[in-house]
Amino acid sequence: MKKIFSITGTIITIILMVVFIILCSFIVMNPYNTNNELLVKELYSLRETQEFHINDIIPFDWDEMYVFKSGTSKEYIEKTINISNSKITNVPEDENTTGIVFLKDGKITAYFPSTKDSHSFKINVPMGNNNHGVVKQYEWVVFMAENKDGIINLTEMTLPFVGGHKYTD
After folding, report:
1. Among 35, 41, 61, 168, which residue's beta carbon has the most beta carbons within 10 A?
2. pLDDT of residue 114
3. How far is Cα 167 from Cα 51, in angstroms, rounded to an integer?
């Protein structure tokens, strides 16, 4: 009887360990975490007041970048990107915050909720009357980087349009 309990206990322990390892690897290997870390590292390698093409610094696959104003609701973000996701949160009401979502083929590849207390960069893009702006990878947009109080501010440079496309040299 002791042997049966011992074998059963060992099997249950092994199963729990496997489940734990799978859950930990999912959390650690979450592409949001990896891609977020890669992009932040790239941003901090930029020199202050450096101009760059956005495609040159984003180190993961993407085709659309959505930037949301401070105070934007979770519902607005999900409706705009056409994805419902439990990780998406409201963008706090603060002048130094933007929410940023990168998509590839309609799936989130990176997400920066940019909370008031934990953000390292802000992206400024033209938004018109909307609560968001969109940058498409194929547009080859030029940004200017500035480091203000430890926060990297990226501002899209206004480029003239030539033949329906942004002129970029």
Report:
1. 35
2. 61
3. 15
